[in-house]
Amino acid sequence: MTNNPWNPTDYDARFSFVTELGEELISQVDPQPGQRILDVGCGTGHLTAQMSKSGATTLGVDSDPNMIATAQREYPAAEWLVADFQELNPEEIPTAAFDAALSNAALHWMPHQATVLRNIRSALRSGAAFVAEMGGSGNISTVDTAIRESLVACGLTAELPNSFFPTVAEESQLLEQASFRVDEMRWFPRPTPLNQGETVADWVANFRAALWNELPASTRELMRAEIESRAEQAGLFRDGIWYIDYCRLRFIATAI
Ligand code: BEZ
Questions:
Q1: Do the beta carbons of residue 133 and residue 188 sit within 8 Å?
Q2: Is residue 34 part of a domain?
Q3: 232 part of a folded domain
Q4: DSSP structure class, residue 3
Q5: Given 3-state DSSP classes, what are the helix, strand and coil percentages for the chain, each rounded to the nearest 5?
Q6: Pairing between β-strand 124-135 and β-strand 98-104 as defined by DSSP bridges
Q7: Does the beta carbon of 147 sit less than 6 angstroms from any atom of ligand 1?
C-alpha cells in the first residue's frame, strides 16, 4: 500500500479543520525570534508559516511533493523539504540544528515510528521541545469498520492503509527510547464534524485515497452507499452533519 495520494486543494478547502484544530500546538511550541523550528509532516504548510510570523526560522518537511509544492507556492520565503522521516538521508536534516519541533496529524502515517522519533531527536538540540498531535488508539475505528464491512458487502478485497494509532503507554515508551522525556501526554476522543455537504464517503475518498483509488470505478457509488449506511447506523450522522470518530494523542516531550 502506497502513501496517501493527497489533493492539496481539497485538503485546504474541504478539510481545513485538520490545520485549524492543530493551531493550538503553536502556542505550546511558543516560537521565538531567532529560533529554528522543524515542522514534521507539514502538509500545505499553514502552521509552519504561522510559526515563522514570530520571527523564528522554520523548515517544513513532508513526504508528499504535491503538498510541499503548494506550501512553497503560498509561502515562497519559507524553507521547505520533501523528505520522509521514516527513511531520512543523514545529509537531509542537520543534526542538533533545531530549537523545537511541531507535528500535527502526521505521525500516524509513519508506522516506522521508532525510526521517525530517532530522526526527530537527532535534528533537535538537547532541551528542545517536541510538541505533537496524532491519531491515538481507537482513532477512526468506526469509519474503518464501515469501510471493511462495505468491502465485504461489495465482494471487493482491498487493504486499508497501514496506520499507527498508539496508546499513551506505547508512544511514551517509543519517545523515551528515542531519548525524549515525556512532559505531558493525553488521549482524548475528538468526534469532528465535516463541512456541510461533505459525507463520510467524501472523507474516505480523500483520507483513505490509497484504497479508494484502487477500487474499480464502477464499484465506487455502491461503496459510497454502503459506507454511508453503515456509518449512519453506527451514529456518525447526527442532526444533518457527518462526524469522523477521531481519537487524538497530544504530547509535549523534551529532547534529553
Ligand atoms: C487522522 O487521524 O488524522 C487520520 C488518520 C488516518 C487517516 C486519515 C486521518
A1: no
A2: yes
A3: no
A4: -
A5: 40, 25, 35
A6: parallel
A7: no
With a 6 A CB cut-off, is 28 part of the ligand 1 pocket? no
Which residues constitute the domain of residue 112? 8-138+163-194+246-255
Q: Is 68 exposed, middle or buried (0-12, 13-18, 19+ CB in 10 A)?
A: buried
C-beta of residue 80 within 8 angstroms of C-beta of residue 137: no
Question: How many domains does the structure of the chain reveal?
Answer: 1
Residues 209, 214: Cα–Cα separation, whole Å = 8
Contact 105 CB / ligand 1 (< 6 Å): yes
CATH number assigned to the domain comprising residue 174:
3.40.50.150
**How much is the pTM?**
0.96
Q: Considering only CA atoms, which residue is closest to atom 1 of ligand 1?
A: 135
Residue 229 included in any domain: no
pLDDT tens digits for 91-139? 999 999 999 999 999 999 999 999 999 999 999 999 999 999 999 999 9
**Is there a domain that residue 25 lies in?**
yes
Per-residue pLDDT of 45-77, as tens digits, reads 999 999 999 999 999 999 999 999 999 999 999
